[in-house]
Amino acid sequence: MATFLYKLGRLSFRRRHVIALIWVALLTLAGVGAAGAPAAGNSSFSIPGTEAQKAFDLLEQRFPGTSADGATARVVFKAPSGEKMTDPGNKATVRETVKELSDGSEVARVTDPYQAKAVSKDGTIAYAQVSYKVSGMELDDASKDALEDSAQDAREAGLTVEIGGDALQAVPHTGSSEIIGIAVAAVVLVITFGSLVAAGLPLLTALIGVGIGVSGITALASALDLGSTTSTLAMMIGLAVGIDYALFIVSRYRAELAEGREREEAAGRAVGTAGSAVVFAGLTVVIALVGLSVVNIPMLTKMGVAAAATVAIAVLIALTMIPALLGYAGRKVRPAGEKSRLFGRARAQDAPAKPNLGSRWASFVVRRPVAVLLLGVVGLGAAAVPAASLELGLPDDGSQPTSTTQRRAYDLLSEGFGPGFNGPLMVVVDAKGSGDPKAAFTAVGDEIKGLKDVVTVTPPAPNKAGDTATITVVPASKPSSVTTEDLVHGIRDAGTEVRADTGANVLVTGSTAMNIDVSQKLNDALVPYLVLVVGLAFLLLIVVFRSILVPLKAALGFLLSVMAALGAVVAVFQWGWLSGLMGVEQTGPVMSMMPIFMVGVVFGLAMDYEVFLVTRMREAYVHGEKPAQAVVTGFRHGARVVSAAAVIMIAVFAGFIGSSESMVKMIGFGLAIAVFFDAFVVRMAIVPAVLALLDRKAWWLPGWLDRALPNVDVEGEGLRAASGDDDGDRQLVRV
């Protein structure tokens, strides 16, 4: 592989005009496609095989034309202080609003609060529910504008009016913090390279890669039903890995220049060595992201595949466009150790090289491996303690910022009707196989009334055929609470008894039940997903490092960092620690897809640092250095660059904490803290400590397995042999 990538690097350096033209053309093509494509909506939670989904499908069959999956909006009215919604003037205003809302072509029906008894007991709050014929993704802007205009007219009449539901779902924005993250990355690159030109290359290529990836996602969003968060997450991951991959190749290029090689040769060798690590690091990220498809949740699969495609683009750009741009930069990119005039004088060539911080730290760890190992493991274990209290759920309007009308509508409904009113459960009774459907409907309603945490049970509403009915159940607790989840399971258990007595099948659905089913499906898939992803990456790392214990250590270190990161997420988003600093306005259960998404993404990123750092150690070891010295050598060459890459990733991910979307905010924080734990505790402390303790055993591989594995030559041994660098001064160690 190293030889192939070496040739690719030299070719890209020589044919830089063609390479640059190809990537600019791809960026232009993707941009044109994105500009002409309809805007992305919010991807629906269609979960094959769950009870909630089966109930939705049944409603479509038995209640044709009701648009069970259509968008809904709750227009909530509150009377001025000292007045009630039943006062004649307020009543007239509400009815005029209901009339306006009914005029839309996409509106299926609108309930009158006074006919539907949707007025609070104290008479101060009422609501009208608007049901649409199409889903929230398909809803026209004209329908949304009409909804907001009607609410504004009622406000001008003196009422407080807010709108909840999924009809007005807004595309999330990240604010200025995302730009701050990129600015921090730029500063880190300038400090690392001591040159504006060298620092600009990783940023430029990363932005081009993300531009192609995100534009492609935007162009295909409508056709593939990609949610608005898909492009945000692809941008988050693609930007971070794009900068990092380019950073490693540029850094190796400068190191090759410092050894006296010509620029084209240095570019080829940088791509042949660091590029090999980039390929395998990128492959682990792609495996982790594409592996999300095993969960069988369409939205999660699409997010994973879209992000994986962006990572693949970042790898290709790093391997081709970086050497092309290095050709354009010429002497403006200086050898390692030299800085441009703007950042100080170059080091004299005859001056002895002082041990850098990475070398000094590695030497310290090698001398005291047990103390460093215990401190790192105990520290991460302490950070992981809150994860034992992890509660999972999916965000609803209650997790929105208080500045949004959805959150204010949620709070008004909780005030007037109780917190459970924001997450009613829909019970579907399929009595087609029952001898007495009406008796079955009544029996189900009576069973539900006897359960705890139930406030309201509506009378059964049968279809025209009389073989299926719906019953609405309002819980006493809020939608995302554990109590509501217990109620859903209680209704399903009661339905089993009713089925045995009457032959009717009872299904629970609605957005709350769907969220509960999604959480359960994600929980069930976590262990198989972990086994699949870690197993595949473990085999891949055996090929890369030609060792059993090094990949095993990498996997165990990852588990430590991801558990510590989950503990931090629980502490902030569930317990409320530092919630004000993070902009968390409402604490509650952790998003149910957070653990599995964090496992996938963090594992891929953790293996990035493992590959980049440990391949340098292996490269030194196979060329004759003792194991302890190889660890120091690996840190001398790689610690500064890996640290810079980690800081850049943390800055980019942390930039998304400012997002208005709670899911994006939580993922941004979780990934940022996970990278911090993994890069600076696991890879920088635990890894060298373990390697120092294992000594030569770290690089042990059974002879039969050594012969069976393909030689991918990540260290670039083939390049050394071909150029005569290995002339007998170094003795190659057989491992």
For the structure shown, list the relevant keywords.
735 residues; alpha+beta; 5-stranded antiparallel sheet; 4-stranded antiparallel sheet; disordered C terminus
Describe the structure.
The protein has 735 residues and is an alpha+beta fold. It is built from 23 helices and 11 strands. The strands form 3 sheets. Strands 6, 7, 8, 9 and 10 form a 5-stranded antiparallel sheet that branches. Helix 8 packs antiparallel against helix 20. The two termini are 19 Å apart.
Task: Give the gist of this structure.
By secondary structure, this protein is α+β, with helices and mostly antiparallel strands. It has 23 helices and eleven strands.
SSE arrangement:
Layout: H1 2-14, H2 16-35, H3 51-62, E1 72-78, H4 88-101, E2 107-110, E3 125-132, H5 141-156, E4 160-165, H6 177-193, H7 196-224, H8 228-258, H9 263-290, H10 298-329, H11 357-367, H12 369-384, E5 392-393, H13 405-417, E6 425-430, H14 437-449, E7 454-457, E8 461-462, E9 468-475, H15 482-502, E10 505-509, H16 511-545, H17 549-574, H18 579-582, E11 590-591, H19 594-622, H20 627-654, H21 662-694, H22 703-708, H23 717-723
Parallel strand pairs: 5-11
Antiparallel strand pairs: 1-3, 1-4, 2-3, 6-9, 6-10, 7-9, 8-9
Helix pairs in contact: 1-2, 1-9, 1-10, 2-7, 2-10, 4-5, 6-7, 6-20, 7-8, 7-10, 8-9, 8-10, 8-20, 9-10, 9-16, 9-19, 11-20, 11-21, 12-17, 12-21, 14-15, 16-17, 16-19, 17-19, 17-21, 19-20, 19-21, 20-21
